[in-house]
Design goal:
It contains 14 helices and 23 strands. The radius of gyration is 22 Å and the shape is globular. The chain has helices spanning 22-31, 48-59, 87-94, 103-110, 129-137, 170-180, 196-207, 239-251, 269-275, 321-328, 349-354, 388-400, 411-414, 420-426, and strands at residues 2-7, 13-16, 38-42, 63-68, 71-75, 112-116, 141-145, 150-154, 162-164, 186-190, 211-213, 219-223, 231-234, 255-258, 281-283, 286-289, 306-309, 334-338, 358-363, 366-370, 382-384, 404-408, 430-435. Helix 6 links the parallel strand 9 (162-164) and strand 10 (186-190). Helix 8 packs parallel to helix 12 (388-400).
Length: 436
């Protein structure tokens, strides 16, 4: 178990280039299973979750070639299906939630897909029903081994159908799309997730010969094809990491430029930060954040307290609410943070309260933050990272705090952020990794 030692209270300065999007690349890597031909993927982030999935693909018989630091070639022409029922797969697959998305392409191409109950963040219940109900609607038979917590779907053939997803699940939508592209007939998916990551997956699949219409909307029409071909795909920059770097700049009152952010795919993110009074400038495809001594939360027109809540795309992503909460601790004014989609993601606020933040946890979904306006600096403390997003939020708080903080269980941060301490050091942060 490794830790970060962070000496807070230092201003930073410089330029950061965001990594490839974790939530996109996990889908894209699973999609390579849909074709026996070579698929090249660029801008792949070097993070634990992605590397675990690449390892699983290799164990499954996919030929993996690393072309450079962030580009890979994959060829799934000799897939080892017996691996799916091995003890090794039950161990490997259970450690990564993103592994659930291999089921759709395996079912579509080989007529079977298995997965142990996946792990990942401890942020409350994250149901798999949407995935498996979609496969069943396409004609698959579902089975579950309760003792081994092992799921399976099997089908001689999949048939297109109309379905309404019970929730606009991003991974569920991706999995069902990948199953439907090789099904016989036409599939219509209502209430589909339409995040840029889903749009990217659809664009990639269409370049491989799939027929997907309605990309970018919540109604996807998929006409099944017999087979798919290889392609080359480049992953978008990670919007969650971009929001995290905005948080770093704001909380340390620093000047920072974030390069090549793909502005057209950021949705509500810049506007929500601006509602907290944060200055963001668009310079080409970069975000420039000037040094700010203070920022004031905008109330509603009638003077009532601002609420920042998550919602399916094009609403505000739940992955950035913890960053917004931390930033609000030093804003001028008050904000209500409403985490609608996950019931345990706000439980890290006790650490912020220990650091001197004024946060009232109303219930598992809501917290009220009363900002200090930098009149009172957060105090350093020792803490543990419970999940990726809370971990980076605590790291941002530590960078702004007075004194030296220790963050344990930083493997959670490494799951989603590439080489984070070296990149922070490059802009002047005082941070070191301590290996136990």
């Amino acid at each position: 178990m490794a830790s970060f030692k962070i000496e807070g209270g230092h201003k930073l300065n410089g330029t950061i280039t965001p990594q490839g999007a974790k939530n996109e690349v996990l889908q894209i890597l699973c999609a390579v299973l849909l074709t026996p031909e070579r698929v090249v993927v660029n801008n792949v982030p070097d993070i634990i979750d992605v590397n675990k999935l690449i390892f699983i693909l290799g164990e499954l018989g996919v030929k993996v070639e690393k072309l450079n630091a962030n580009s890979y070639a994959f060829q799934a022409d000799e897939v080892d299906l017996p691996y799916l029922e091995s003890d090794n797969f039950k161990r490997d697959g259970s450690s990564l939630r993103g592994s659930i998305m291999i089921v759709g392409p395996l079912l579509a191409r080989f007529g079977k897909g298995y997965i142990p109950r996946p792990g990942g963040d401890k942020i409350g219940r994250r149901r798999l029903d949407t995935h498996f109900e979609g496969f069943i609607r396409l004609g698959a038979k579902f089975r579950y081994n309760k003792e081994e917590k092992f799921y399976g779907v099997e089908a001689d053939e999949l048939f297109g159908t109309d379905m309404l997803l019970d929730e606009a699940s991003v991974t569920g939508t991706a999995n069902i799309i990948m199953a439907a592209v090789l099904a016989s007939g036409t599939t219509r998916i209502y209430n589909a997730a339409c995040e840029p990551y889903i749009q990217q997956l659809c664009k990639m699949l269409n370049s491989m010969g799939a027929k997907i219409e309605g990309v970018g909307s919540n109604l996807l029409t998929i006409t099944g094809v017999d087979s798919l071909v290889g392609c080359e795909h480049t992953v978008l920059p990670d919007m969650i990491e971009i929001g995290s770097w905005i948080g770093v700049a704001v909380m340390t009152q620093s000047e920072l430029t974030i390069k090549n952010v793909s502005w057209e795919n950021l949705g509500q993110i810049p506007n929500v930060f601006r509602k907290l009074g944060i200055q963001l400038e668009k310079k080409g495809d970069d975000i420039y954040i000037p040094e700010q001594e203070s920022y004031e939360i905008q109330n509603y027109i009638d003077g009532s307290v601002l609420t920042v809540a998550d919602a399916p795309w094009p609403g505000f992503t739940p992955d950035l609410l913890s960053i917004i909460l931390v930033i609000a601790t030093q804003a001028k004014g008050t904000v209500l943070i409403h985490q609608k989609m996950f019931e345990s993601r706000l439980f890290f606020v006790d650490k912020l309260i220990d650091m001197g933040a004024k946060v009232i946890l109303c219930d598992p979904h809501r917290a009220t933050v009363i900002g200090h306006d930098f009149q009172s600096q957060l105090k350093a403390t020792k803490m543990t990272s419970p999940d990726i997003r809370a971990g980076i939020s605590l790291l941002i708080a530590a960078l702004s705090a007075s004194g030296t903080s220790i963050i344990n269980n930083i493997e959670q941060i490494d799951r989603g952020y590439e080489n984070i301490e070296a990149r922070l050091k490059s802009i002047g942060a005082k941070i070191e990794r301590i290996e136990d």
